[in-house]
């Protein structure tokens, strides 16, 4: 079997790649660099020239080749490699007639617990409470809460001052905990939005509400800062969604900076590299929460990974697809039941794009070049 063509498809704010073979088998992948999809598409097109005429089974070799062929890497290149890698695994599974997880050691579970990741920052108390009650009624047993501060200052900066900021976020968590009860886990998404003193103060105060995760309490660029938060706070820390290199995860865990790692299968080098990160985490007694802010191919690829690793924490399910909003993007949507996604049994990654995906979901790139700003006009981390 040989690779004959590589094509790109854009739907909504997603970039999909299809790798075609001379046997009619088509592999499907997705790129993770959602803010720079045009640049990532150009990178895929360049890498595609190397693939034509080659055996698609040589996945590890391709992965290593693309990472080492030039000394340029970074998020655009790694997202391109990731999309290709996922599509190659899809081809291999389809050719052999098995789900990808069977090629990675076989499944260790029958379903994957997921948490709802609503992509909104509700601040009205009544609306906030109602939205989390609705998630529980939908069958979810866990959900994300954004606690990364106001998108825009509403009180001339007072909602960004130290004490007010901490108290506002604590009140948000308190309301959600009361709304869903104790049989429900909360993932607190700081989104790199706190300083070190804010993160430590908030992290200690919020322990009373028993959150499952404090995600990216500070920017992850300084491993020692993240480790300091982890050493002073009783809530388990998660980080790694912005990483694009296996060794970044090694350093993070070596510093004892996290209890959960968040590899993004569409950004870190595909299923190939993500599986290595999971093994590395297992050796460090760290659990895995795959990052999944993207489309159905990302979710399907994450499921293949979750199926076969022993140290899974939980899986993110993005708010874009809640209530079946993206079901028509694929021919047969993944199945959800009682707070879990069921493992697909179809060969490969288990899904196929619908023929009219682009028409149903017109391309609309997410994200812009303008940074968030604090009340005084200074730039805030995204």
Automatic annotation (TrEMBL):
InterPro entries: DgoD-like (IPR034593), Enolase-like_C_sf (IPR036849), Enolase-like_N (IPR029017), Enolase_C-like (IPR029065), Mandel_Rmase/mucon_lact_enz_CS (IPR018110), Mandelate_racemase_C (IPR013342), Mandelate_racemase_N_dom (IPR013341). Keywords: Lyase, Metal-binding. Residues 373-382 have a biased composition (Basic and acidic residues). Signal peptide: none annotated. GO terms for biological process: amino acid catabolic process. It holds the Pfam family MR_MLE_C. GO terms for molecular function: lyase activity; metal ion binding. It comes from the Bacteria. Residues 125-236 form the Mandelate racemase/muconate lactonizing enzyme C-terminal domain. SUPFAM superfamilies: Enolase C-terminal domain-like (SSF51604), Enolase N-terminal domain-like (SSF54826). Residues 362-382 are annotated as: Disordered. The keyword Lyase applies. PANTHER family: D-GALACTONATE DEHYDRATASE (PTHR48080:SF2), D-GALACTONATE DEHYDRATASE-RELATED (PTHR48080). This is Galactonate dehydratase. It comes from Faecalibacterium gallinarum. The gene is dgoA.
């Amino acid at each position: 079997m040989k690779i004959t063509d590589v094509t790109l498809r854009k739907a909504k704010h997603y970039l999909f790649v299809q790798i075609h073979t001379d046997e009619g088998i088509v592999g499907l992948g997705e790129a993770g660099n959602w803010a720079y999809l045009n640049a990532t598409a150009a990178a895929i097109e360049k890498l595609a020239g190397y693939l034509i005429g080659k055996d698609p089974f040589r996945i590890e070799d391709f992965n290593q080749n693309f990472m080492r062929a030039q000394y340029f890497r970074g998020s655009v290149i790694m997202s391109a490699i990731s999309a290709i890698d996922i599509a190659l695994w899809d081809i291999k599974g389809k050719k052999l007639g098995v789900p990808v997880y069977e090629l990675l050691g076989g499944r260790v579970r029958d379903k994957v617990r997921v948490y709802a990741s609503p992509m909104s920052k509700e601040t009205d108390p009544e609306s906030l409470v109602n939205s989390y009650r609705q998630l529980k009624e939908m069958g979810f047993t866990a959900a994300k809460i954004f606690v990364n501060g106001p998108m825009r200052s509403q009180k001339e900066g007072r909602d960004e001052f130290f004490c007010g900021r901490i108290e506002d976020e604590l009140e948000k968590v308190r309301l959600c905990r009361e709304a869903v009860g104790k049989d429900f886990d909360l993932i607190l998404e700081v989104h790199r939005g706190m300083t070190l003193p804010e993160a430590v103060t908030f992290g200690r105060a919020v322990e009373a509400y028993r959150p499952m995760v404090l995600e990216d309490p500070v920017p992850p660029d300084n491993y020692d800062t993240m480790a300091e938060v982890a050493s002073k706070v009783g809530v388990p820390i998660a980080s790694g969604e912005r990483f694009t290199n296996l060794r970044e995860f090694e350093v993070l865990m070596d510093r004892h900076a996290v209890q959960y790692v968040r590899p993004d299968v569409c950004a870190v080098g595909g299923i190939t590299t993500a599986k290595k990160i999971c093994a590395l985490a297992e050796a460090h007694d760290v659990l895995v929460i795959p990052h999944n802010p993207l489309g159905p191919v990302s979710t399907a690829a994450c499921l293949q990974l979750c199926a076969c690793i022993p140290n899974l924490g939980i899986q993110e399910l993005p708010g874009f697809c809640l209530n079946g909003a993206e079901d028509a993007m694929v021919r047969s949507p993944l199945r959800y039941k009682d707070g879990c996604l069921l493992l697909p049994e179809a060969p490969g990654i288990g899904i196929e794009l619908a023929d009219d995906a682009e028409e149903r979901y017109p391309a609309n790139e997410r994200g812009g070049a303008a940074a968030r700003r604090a009340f005084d006009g200074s730039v805030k981390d995204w």
